[in-house]
Amino acid sequence: MVDRRAEILNGELSFPVQIMEILNPDNNQEVKILVEEFWNNLWHNHLREKSCDSITWLCKFDNANLFNNMLMHLSKAGWITSTVDNNYAFIVLNDSKLLKWVDKDELMNVKFKYKFLKYRLQATKSTLSDIVQINGKHVPTGLIREGFMKAGNSTFTYDTKYLQKYLHHIAENVKKGLAASTKDITYQEIVDELLNYYSVDGTEYTLGNCYIDSRGRSIFQCSKKVFNPVSCKDARALLVCKAEELTNDGWNCIYAAISELLGYRGKNIEDKIKYGQSMYILRELPSLEEMEFNEDYEDLHVRIWLERIYENIDTYEQTGWYVAIELDRDLSSINFSNCWKLLRASGTKRNNPEDWTISSQAA
User: Fold this and answer.
1) Does pLDDT of 344 surpass 80?
2) pLDDT of 267 strictly over 80
3) Is the dihedral of CA 64, 69, 75, 78 positive or negative?
4) Which of 186, 191, 233, 325 could serve as 257's disulfide partner, Cβ 3.0–4.6 Å?
5) In terms of DSSP bridges, do strands 137-140 and 52-53 run parallel, antiparallel, or are they unpaired?
6) Which residues, in sequence order, are CB contacts of 74 under 8 Å at separation 6+?
């Protein structure tokens, strides 16, 4: 006997045994797998407060009689409601059926937990280096990005001190542009809950697996999570990485990053470094009061990043360098230019930049 209450409270729901026996009296494994795949999709969509597309599943079944019989028996038993119109057809799982075993608050908690775990960052191992995403499908095409796979395994945490300090403002940024929702558990609520969770959680996360687009660029799977460092500037500004000792070039990059955060382009890299050093002395920051007055937190990440950089410079002797930074691509161009100058100065026989190629696996 299936314990439905225990299943639902654990975020699970198995297909009704009696209906399976009617649909699949010969215990055909292909039919069983297909029906269970449909049921799991229906259940997970229900937890997300979404419907299940009828046409998509009719095509997957490729057997109209089996599909229609399944819907008929599930509908008669009160499990589902199937809606068909001129332009669409969808299926939903009925709350009324589930409320036979749990109450409304318990079901709400199950949905909330599902969404919370679905959108929370994780520490998953990155193992993919050659899977390309084309029109929603994942196939190997010959493109290989070992660097993306390795980057996916890099661990990071968030600076909880500054996340707590700017929690309200960060939440405003993350929820900006989200439409009002009539769902029982809105995306906005999940954002608030996850930000509160991150603000007191010291767990290490990873970027996880990465697919490659048709042009060879990265599509990290963590980009689907709330407050991920790939698509959220405020999250990148709060990244804490393994503390390291800086070289002279490292310090130059820090001061150049200060310049770029403050919008200073500079004549060259040396100019950026000098400007960054002077701004560190002045402790230059974007005005939070002005952001609050205008209710616009577009530059919040700049303020957070600079505060953390200034603090890390002050405490470097005790802590090492732990603030992750990013630099404008102009600096990469400068580095390539410097490499070319060194190659010319070394007396190499290759006198044209066109003679040199960069491996696609260097990503």
Assistant:
1) no
2) yes
3) negative
4) 325
5) unpaired
6) 16, 19, 80
What does pTM read for this prediction? 0.79
Burial degree of 259 (CB within 10 A; 0-12, 13-18, 19+): buried
Which position has the token pair 């997957």? 60
Among candidate residues 246, 247, 208, 242, the one with its CA nearest the CA of residue 228: 208
* Partners of 91 in the β-ladder: 52, 82
Is-contact 202 238, C-beta < 8 A? no
338: left (phi over 0), alpha (psi -120 to 50) or beta: alpha
Please state, in angstroms and rounded to a whole number, the distance separating the CA atoms of residues 301 and 95.
Answer: 42
Distance CA 315, CA 240 (A): 14
**Residue 210 CB-density burial (10 A; 0-12 exposed, 13-18 middle, 19+ buried):** buried
CA 317 to chain centre: 34
> Rounded CA gap, 170 and 176, in Å?
10
Q: In the predicted model, is pLDDT for residue 287 greater than 70?
A: yes
Tell me the mean pLDDT in the region 38-53. 95
Three-state secondary structure of the chain: CCCHHHHHHCCCCCCCHHHHHHHCCCCCHHHHHHHHHHHHHHHHHHHCCCCEEHHHHHHHHCCHHHHHHHHHHHHHCCCEEEEECCCCEEEEECHHHHCCCCCHHHHHHHHHHHHHHHHCCCCCCCCCCCEEEECCEEEECCCCCHHHHHHHCCEEEECHHHHHHCHHHHHHHHHCCCCCCCCCCCHHHHHHHHHHHHHHCCCCEECCCEEECCCCCEEEHHHHCCCCCCCCHHHHHCEEEEEECCCHHHHHHHHHHHHHHCCCCCCCHHHHHHHHHHHHHHCCCCCHHHHHHHCCCCCHHHHHHHHHHHHHHHHHHHHCEEECCCCCHHHHHHHHHHHHHHHHHCCCCCCCHHHCCCCHHHC
Q: Answer whether 301's CB lies under 8 Å from 172's CB.
A: no
For residues 297 and 287, give the distance between their C-alpha atoms in angstroms, rounded to a whole number.
10
